[in-house]
């Protein structure tokens, strides 16, 4: 009986994702976002239960990927679609001023295809046991969930920073490409409680908590971009052209609002570098 418990939890994941899609298409995007959070909870506990009960199986591994495909592959594209679509209304019609802009809301439909490729690759990639190669699908889903929450709780900030259809379409495309990229991303799971080996994770979580306390929900909309940015920093190199290049692009795209991403990311990198030198 106990061997079926992790699979049952995984099925709750895919059920949450399915109901979330239904809710989104019936105008309840905020509820749908919470259902994705619920799916993430189930996604965490199915693996935890499998390890606790010592019932890991190949079937469970495949079932987990299928569930993730629905909750973190299809559902993020649905959230992105509705966020872009809702920004496109003008004068009571959908993209009535510039009809060509309607193409932006279909860009997120690329996300499920890239997610499927990533999930299939993840099951075969032995390099991703303690860290990730490319953006994890739950992280992509979490970005869009936080955008929904930001629009719901702090609409003025959402409009100022993220309220451009072309910008959200561009982020959807970039995040989709990052799903299958070869860029190393640090794991959000603790392997131990020591500072060494977890400094980046501790600093990131600390920045998320402080940001939420100081700025509220709007800080959470920058959480995944910060995660991606600090993952792109190579602490073994003197010059990090990729890191600084992304900083420049962010300021070009977001103007002053880029500081919500750049400032915490640079602060995290600085703290990790200083503590690493102190340990030496």
From TrEMBL:
GO terms for molecular function: CDP-diacylglycerol-serine O-phosphatidyltransferase activity. Keywords: Lipid biosynthesis, Lipid metabolism, Membrane, Phospholipid biosynthesis, Phospholipid metabolism, Transferase, Transmembrane, Transmembrane helix. GO terms for cellular component: endomembrane system; membrane. The keyword Membrane applies. It catalyses: a CDP-1,2-diacyl-sn-glycerol + L-serine = a 1,2-diacyl-sn-glycero-3-phospho-L-serine + CMP + H(+). It is an enzyme of class 2 (transferase). It is found in: Endomembrane system. Its EC number is 2.7.8.8. Its main location: membrane. GO terms for biological process: phospholipid biosynthetic process. Signal peptide: none annotated. PANTHER family: CDP-DIACYLGLYCEROL--GLYCEROL-3-PHOSPHATE 3-PHOSPHATIDYLTRANSFERASE-RELATED, CDP-DIACYLGLYCEROL--SERINE O-PHOSPHATIDYLTRANSFERASE. Belongs to the CDP-alcohol phosphatidyltransferase class-I family. This is CDP-diacylglycerol--serine O-phosphatidyltransferase.
């Amino acid at each position: 009986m106990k061997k079926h418990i992790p699979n049952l939890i995984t099925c709750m994941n895919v059920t949450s994702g399915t109901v979330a899609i239904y809710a989104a298409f019936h105008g309840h995007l905020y509820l749908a976002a919470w259902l994705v959070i619920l799916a993430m909870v189930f996604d965490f506990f199915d693996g935890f239960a499998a390890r606790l009960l010592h019932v890991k199986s190949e079937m469970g591994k495949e079932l987990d990927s299928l569930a993730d495909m629905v909750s973190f592959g299809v559902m993020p594209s649905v959230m992105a679609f509705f966020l872009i679509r809702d920004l496109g209304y003008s004068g009571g019609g959908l993209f009535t001023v510039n009809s060509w802009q309607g193409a932006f809301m279909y860009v997120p439909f690329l996300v499920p295809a890239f997610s499927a490729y990533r999930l299939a690759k993840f099951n075969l990639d032995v390099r991703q046991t303690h860290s990730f190669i490319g953006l994890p699908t739950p992280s992509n889903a979490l970005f869009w969930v936080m955008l929904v929450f930001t629009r719901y709780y702090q609409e003025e900030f959402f409009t100022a920073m993220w309220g451009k259809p072309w910008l959200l379409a561009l982020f959807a495309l970039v995040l989709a490409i990052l799903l299958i990229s070869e860029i190393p991303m640090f794991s959000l799971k603790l392997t131990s409680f020591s500072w060494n080996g977890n400094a980046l994770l501790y600093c990131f979580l600390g920045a998320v908590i402080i940001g939420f306390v100081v700025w509220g929900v709007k800080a959470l909309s920058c959480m995944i971009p910060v995660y991606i940015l600090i993952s792109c920093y190579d602490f073994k190199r003197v010059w990090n052209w990729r890191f600084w290049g992304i900083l420049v692009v962010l300021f070009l795209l977001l103007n002053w609002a880029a500081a919500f991403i750049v400032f915490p990311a640079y602060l995290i990198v600085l703290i990790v570098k200083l503590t690493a030198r102190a340990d030496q």
